[in-house]
């Protein structure tokens, strides 16, 4: 362990220290606004460190290992670190008002959130099975408490549900890891990769020789689907999203999902690389994708609570993203960008902008109208034209209509699917996005067409307005100039592929 | 191949303990009395610890008994005794019959995976400096692994404990 | 780089952003929008007249290479007009002007209304001029946002239901379209989004590449993906059910836009893609063309019969659109027999029908809007004898009606005659379908005249009718309504008397489509 090892995880160290100092400061300081500022300062400092790591200020160049090859700092992990840290800044930055009025334990709330972010950051850069699992736990355990911190009665129940399913998924993942270790003799991604490459020369080999490895991978994928909010571990999503404090819902829907996809992609492309596993896995992902999209979209049709509705919509979006994951095209990487993983990274970046904008606006608006019922949003246009415009842009992006980023994301995902002979999956995807139009249009109708039914005044705090405005600009900008992200995404994906 | 050889004493003990572990686990979830469940849990933990001993993982075995039997199970037993209606706890819900199908399928798949013959039995990890004595003492070996290869995991585990502690405290405050 | 076409596309879009972001005063917004569409009309006429018929090909091209500059995703910004799109761009200019000029009565949420209407005009022109498939698709989908809001906010009746139905049908069409686009783009040997070849820019278009391409999925599947998508938009029986609802519940100007140019997006797609891409590919039209002509004939008759039974003025015109768009498909199916320039008569007619139907039906919807503003009902049995109170409206209504039923001297006649003559010559089932189509014209005469007779002539409304109370106070056309009505009427006469104005240019477009 050299100094450089610690330099490589300096963003994580900074955030975890910020978390600890927030816990301590909470005991002495009464002005809780200060704690929010400390958290944001910590996040921003670690963002600068992350930039430093990517630009060669702190280390020579990305692509280095640390801590006996447990951690790898590459463009892929940097991409996700930036995404996670900035989303964290958006969530914490805009929830200052929410925390001060809705959360009893303010210091704990912020500190636990920061700890969970630390876990996410470690998760996206770990290349060793035990580190992956421990980081996964670090992301989940603070969230169990965070979900329960809401004031409403449902949040305890939601937290219990989250705890149990999180534990089940952890056990499933651990079981998968045991198989991976038992059949390859190593917990390091690179070692497992070289073991598989040396023993597998045809798909038949795979079934006969590496059956245990296959089971291990499948269990791992199923367990990770909990993080992705995808089938078969999707049933916690609506209750937890509804019961959790709204900033936590936003965090779960964006950051947790992004980190889950990061692990998934890393395992596929670093552990399995160009092996024949990809054929079998592609089928597995296709099935998960179809179920997630269909369940999410069909269940969302009848929801009246906006948080529940968006919860089902995130399940559907996990399904779309899994189409991109299923479009495994190992040989095509580098030659054509319409291969799946770049699309997934672009989608996740766009989805972060879109969903954060939507959820943060809901935080702001629901504070004034005092309800999460969809009908409460009636007449929003009249009370706050700018808010409703921004909300419309994010809903249109979720639906996937140009000129928003949601449209371009879908184009890239579907073209990846068509390109890898998964045209049927792309067709299921587009039909699903037609179904989703029904409930997204309902939101637009309630906001823009329905007459107002209450007199409450809408006052959205300045920080939320600012962050959602940035989000809206991001949605439009990335929609019109997708290459801003896609080029970075390409480099990121190239950095994890083992061939 | 182990199974083809004549069973040694270790094998016989293993099978007895394994059977006990499985039956004990089934019993934990099938008895209706929570207190009995807690006691069975402790017993099952002990048998798991014996499995560790059989694998020459003495330290883990001791820890297993200390932590799970000594602390966790006792804590559970205390918690159970504070509850009024111990004998009439919730029984499993109606889905229990339905759940047999997927679990059986899962069992078959896993059995095949476990029964496959190419488990790696020797470690293939190449440490930078190979340990001089091979597993002379479990404790020192584990200790060294924790602060070398698994340093980062060890630290993350520390953060997890911190998060769990603070989270539990925050929840207590919410209740109060 | 010429810039004119890009200006035409982006002026209305920019104007809508300016209205949303900067302008506050309703009066100012109205004047601003009026002048924007006037400029737009002048620009489209200018672009149309700039098209050099002697030179042919794609003209007024704007090209920015690598709009999405990523390896393997060759999406360019490429717009321009050819013989096929030039008349449709002109049509969009005319109808956009008529729709905005005709909306001076809108009092409710003026700012959003004009912003959305201008945005709609911009993106629809974008559909007609984009020569890059991805750009085409972006404009195609972008049209949904303004349409949804325009129908559901300013519409009447079950406005939200109709708007959602419209969006979901169009999204479904878009879903098929994108699969088709991706399947073509990702096929070996194509890897291009360029819709036409442009030798000056060294761009090889998909029509040229299709012949030697190794397609990802069977060519017939791709063809039907595209065709069904366009047929929904056109709309063709049995995919038409969104149209009557959307038309009936939309505000007047939106009905004008919908009938006038949005339906033409489907027609344009059929020519540009179903014909342009597949005529030179391995796709066999021998089976497809008879199916098309049968569907077209069913559309004509089915639409006409349903039209007769309608009692709502708007719904009646909406169903007549289904019938009239059937002619486009009948004419289109004659592509099977095209071997030389002389065989493209029916195709020219079908393309002309897109233009003429746009102006005639646009005029009809505009006038129905005027009648509704006065009588507050569109229920035909409640109307009657309106000629005495609104003679000018009645005259224009007669023009629209006669245009629609194909009176010689008006533009509808020319288009339909060309379609019938051309398709009849193909023989067999095509001749039979043509005869059925001609019967549709007879029905059209029936329902049009009957409708005019019931609402404008005959007895005054009976006592039970809500109109009878204020019948004496009904006024004729307002001075501000003259402009939008005239801008739609003039092309009906001009094209009716001198059809070569359009047919010459359309012929060039069609001819190039066949690479003759």
Describe this structure in words.
The complex is a heterotrimer of chains A (499), B (176) and C (516). Chain A has 499 residues and is mostly helical. Chain A has one domain (3-494). Chain A is 77% helix and 1% strand. Chain A contains 22 helices and two strands. Chain A has helices spanning 3-8, 10-28, 32-55, 75-94, 96-102, 106-125, 129-148, 154-184, 189-199, 203-209, 211-228, 236-243, 246-272, 277-300, 306-326, 340-369, 380-383, 385-399, 405-419, 423-448, 462-480, 483-494; strands at 64-66, 71-73. A two-stranded antiparallel sheet of chain A has the order 1-2. In chain A, a hairpin with a 4-residue loop joins β1 (64-66) and β2. The longest helix of chain A is centred in the middle third of the chain and has 31 residues, at 154-184. The mean pLDDT of chain A is 86. Chain B is globular, with a radius of gyration of 21 Å. Chain B is mostly helical. Chain B is built from six helices and no strands. Helix content of chain C is 68%, strand content 4%. Chain C is built from 19 helices and two strands. In chain C, a hairpin with a 2-residue loop joins β1 and β2 (73-81). In chain C, α1 packs antiparallel against α2, α13 (313-333) runs antiparallel to α14 and α13 packs parallel to α16. Chains in contact: A-B, A-C. Chain A binds chain B through residues 1, 9, 16, 20, 23, 66-68, 70-71, 104-105, 108-109, 111-112, 115-116, 118-119, 122, 126, 128, 130-131, 134-135, 137-138, 141-142, 144-146, 148-149, 179, 182-186, 188, 191, 195, 209-212, 215-216, and chain B through 109-110, 112-114, 116, 118-120, 122-125, 128, 148-153, 156-157, 159-160, 162-164, 166-171, 173-174.
User: What average pLDDT do the residues of chain B reach?
Assistant: 78
Largest chain interface and its two residue counts?
A-B, 51 and 35 residues
* Number of structural units classed as domains of chain B: 2
Low-confidence stretches of chain B: 123-130
The CATH topology assignment of the largest domain in chain B is Four Helix Bundle (Hemerythrin (Met), subunit A)
Shape of chain B: globular
Q: Radius of gyration of chain B from the CA trace?
A: 21 Å
Strand percentage of chain A lies at under 5%
CA distance, first residue to last residue of chain A? 28 Å
Query: Spatial order of the strands in the main sheet of chain A?
Result: 1-2
Counting structural domains of chain A, the number is 1
List the secondary-structure elements of chain A in sequence, H or E. Answer: HHHEEHHHHHHHHHHHHHHHHHHH
Main β-sheet description of chain B: none
């Amino acid at each position: 362990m050299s100094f450089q090892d610690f330099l490589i995880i300096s963003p994580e160290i900074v955030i975890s220290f910020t978390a600890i100092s927030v816990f301590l400061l909470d005991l002495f300081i009464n002005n809780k606004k200060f704690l929010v500022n400390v958290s944001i300062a910590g996040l921003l400092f670690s963002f600068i460190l992350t930039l430093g790591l990517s630009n060669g200020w702190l280390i020579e160049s990305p692509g280095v290992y640390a801590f006996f090859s447990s951690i790898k700092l590459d463009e892929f992990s940097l991409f996700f670190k930036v995404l996670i840290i900035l989303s964290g800044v958006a969530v914490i930055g805009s929830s200052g008002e929410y925390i001060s009025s809705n959360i009893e334990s303010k210091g704990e709330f912020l500190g636990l959130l920061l700890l969970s972010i630390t876990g996410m950051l470690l998760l996206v850069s770990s290349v060793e099975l035990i580190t992956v699992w421990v980081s996964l736990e670090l992301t989940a355990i603070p969230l169990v408490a965070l979900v329960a911190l809401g004031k409403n009665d449902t949040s305890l129940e939601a937290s219990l549900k989250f705890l149990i399913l999180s534990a089940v998924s952890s056990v499933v993942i651990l079981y998968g890891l045991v198989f991976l270790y038992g059949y390859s003799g190593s917990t390091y991604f690179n070692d497992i990769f070289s073991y598989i490459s040396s023993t597998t020369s045809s798909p038949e080999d795979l079934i006969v020789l590496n059956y245990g490895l296959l089971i291990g991978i499948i269990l791992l994928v199923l367990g990770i689907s909990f993080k992705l909010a995808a089938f078969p571990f999707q049933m916690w999503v609506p209750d937890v999203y509804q019961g959790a404090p709204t900033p936590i819902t936003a965090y779960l829907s964006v950051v947790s999902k992004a980190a889950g996809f990061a692990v998934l992609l890393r395992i596929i492309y670093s552990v399995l690389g160009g092996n024949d596993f990809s054929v079998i896995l592609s089928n597995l992902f296709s099935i998960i994708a179809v179920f997630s999209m269909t369940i999410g979209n069909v269940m969302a049709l009848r929801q009246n609570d906006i948080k529940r509705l968006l919860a089902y919509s995130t399940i559907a979006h996990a399904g779309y993203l899994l189409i991109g994951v299923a479009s495994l095209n190992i040989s095509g990487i580098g030659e054509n960008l319409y291969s799946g993983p770049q699309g997934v990274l672009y989608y996740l970046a766009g989805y972060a902008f879109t969903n954060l904008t939507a959820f943060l606006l809901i935080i702001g608006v629901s504070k004034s109208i005092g309800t999460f019922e969809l009908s409460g949003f009636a007449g929003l246009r009249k009370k706050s034209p700018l808010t409703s415009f921004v909300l419309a842009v994010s809903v249109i992006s979720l639906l996937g209509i140009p000129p928003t980023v949601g449209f371009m994301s879908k184009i890239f995902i579907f073209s990846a699917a068509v390109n890898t002979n998964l045209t049927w999956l792309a067709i299921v995807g587009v039909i699903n996005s037609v179904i989703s139009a029904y409930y997204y249009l309902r939101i637009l109708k309630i906001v823009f067409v329905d007459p107002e039914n209450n007199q409450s005044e809408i006052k959205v705090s300045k920080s939320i307005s600012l962050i959602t405005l940035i989000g809206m600009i991001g949605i439009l900008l990335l929609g019109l100039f997708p290459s801003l992200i896609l080029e970075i995404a390409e480099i990121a994906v190239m950095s994890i592929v083992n061939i | 191949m182990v199974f083809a050889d004549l069973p040694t004493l270790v094998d016989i003990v293993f099978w007895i303990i394994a059977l006990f572990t499985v039956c004990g686990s089934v019993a934990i979830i099938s008895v209706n009395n929570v207190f009995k469940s807690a006691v069975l849990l402790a017993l099952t933990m002990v048998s798991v610890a014996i499995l560790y001993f059989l694998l020459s993982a003495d330290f883990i075995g001791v820890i297993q008994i200390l932590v799970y039997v000594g602390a966790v199970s006792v804590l559970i037993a205390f918690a159970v005794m504070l509850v009024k209606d111990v004998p009439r706890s919730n029984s499993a819900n109606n889905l229990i019959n339905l759940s047999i199908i997927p679990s059986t399928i899962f069992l078959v798949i896993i059995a095949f995976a476990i029964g496959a013959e190419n488990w790696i039995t020797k470690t293939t990890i190449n440490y930078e400096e190979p340990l001089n004595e091979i597993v002379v003492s479990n404790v020192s070996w584990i200790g060294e692994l924790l602060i070398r290869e698994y340093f980062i995991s060890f630290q993350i585990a520390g953060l997890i404990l911190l998060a769990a502690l603070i989270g539990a405290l925050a929840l207590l405050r919410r209740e109060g | 780089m010429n810039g004119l076409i890009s200006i035409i596309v982006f002026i209305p879009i920019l104007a809508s952003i300016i209205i949303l972001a900067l302008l506050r005063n309703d009066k100012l917004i109205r004047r601003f929008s009026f002048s924007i569409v006037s400029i737009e009309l002048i620009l489209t006429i200018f672009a149309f007249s700039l098209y050099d018929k002697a030179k042919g090909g794609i003209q007024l091209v704007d090209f920015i290479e690598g709009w999405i500059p990523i390896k393997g995703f060759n999406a360019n910004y490429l717009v321009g007009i050819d013989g096929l799109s030039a008349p449709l761009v002109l049509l969009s200019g005319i109808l956009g002007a008529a729709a905005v000029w005709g909306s001076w009565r809108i009092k409710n949420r003026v700012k959003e209304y004009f912003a959305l209407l201008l945005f709609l005009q911009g993106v629809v022109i974008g559909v007609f001029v984009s020569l890059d498939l991805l750009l085409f698709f972006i404009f195609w989908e972008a049209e949904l946002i303004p349409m949804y809001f325009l129908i559901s906010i300013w519409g009447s009746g079950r406005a939200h239901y109709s708007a959602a139905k419209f969006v979901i049908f169009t999204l479904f069409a878009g879903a098929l379209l994108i699969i088709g686009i991706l399947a073509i783009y990702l096929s070996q040997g194509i890897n291009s989004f360029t819709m036409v070849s442009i030798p000056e820019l060294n761009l090889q278009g998909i029509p040229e590449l299709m012949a030697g391409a190794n397609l990802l999925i069977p060519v017939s599947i791709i063809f039907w993906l595209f065709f069904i998508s366009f047929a929904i938009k056109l709309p063709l029986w049995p995919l038409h059910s969104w149209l009557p609802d959307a038309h009936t519940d939309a505000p007047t100007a939106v009905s004008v836009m919908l009938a006038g140019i949005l339906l033409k997006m489907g027609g344009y797609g059929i020519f540009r893609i179903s014909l342009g891409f597949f005529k030179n590919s391995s796709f066999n039209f021998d089976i497809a063309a008879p199916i098309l002509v049968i569907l077209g004939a069913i559309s004509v008759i089915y639409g006409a019969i349903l039209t007769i039974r309608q009692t709502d003025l708007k719904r009646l015109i909406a169903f007549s659109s289904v019938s009239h768009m059937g002619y486009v498909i009948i004419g289109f199916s004659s592509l099977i027999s095209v071997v030389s320039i002389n065989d493209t008569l029916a195709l020219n007619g079908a393309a002309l029908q897109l233009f003429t139907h746009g102006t005639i039906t646009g005029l009809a919807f505009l006038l129905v809007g005027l009648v509704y503003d006065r009588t507050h009902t569109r229920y035909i049995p409640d109307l009657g004898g309106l000629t005495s109170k609104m003679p000018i409206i009645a005259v224009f209504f007669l023009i629209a009606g006669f245009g629609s039923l194909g009176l010689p001297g008006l533009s509808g006649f020319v288009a339909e005659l060309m379609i019938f003559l051309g398709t009849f010559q193909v023989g067999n089932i095509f001749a039979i379908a043509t005869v059925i189509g001609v019967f549709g014209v007879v029905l059209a005469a029936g329902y049009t005249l009957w409708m005019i007779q019931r609402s404008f002539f005959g007895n005054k409304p009976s006592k039970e009718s809500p109109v009878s109370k204020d019948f004496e106070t009904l006024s004729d056309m307002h001075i501000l309504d003259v402009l939008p009505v005239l801008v739609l009427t003039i092309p009906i006469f001009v094209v009716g008397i001198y059809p070569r104005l359009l047919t010459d240019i359309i012929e060039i477009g069609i001819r190039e489509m066949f690479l003759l």
